[in-house]
Amino acid sequence: MESGPAIFAGAAFTLFGGALLLWTTVRVRHGEPVALGVAPRAAAAFAGLAGALFLGLGLWCFGRL
User: Fold this and answer.
1) Which DSSP state fits 1?
2) pLDDT along the chain (65 residues), means of 10
């Protein structure tokens, strides 16, 4: 019974983190801004850190099964 919410949370966090990392990488490689009105390096670093955090959180949820 307890594994259902963990699977859902793990899938949601992992998909969001992976998508955020992919989106940030594509924007940086094309030289486009990651966030409007923010320094490009700071925005890319923050988005990359957040993506890695969510990806790690999703993997942690899967590890708890």
Assistant:
1) -
2) 86 97 96 93 96 96 88
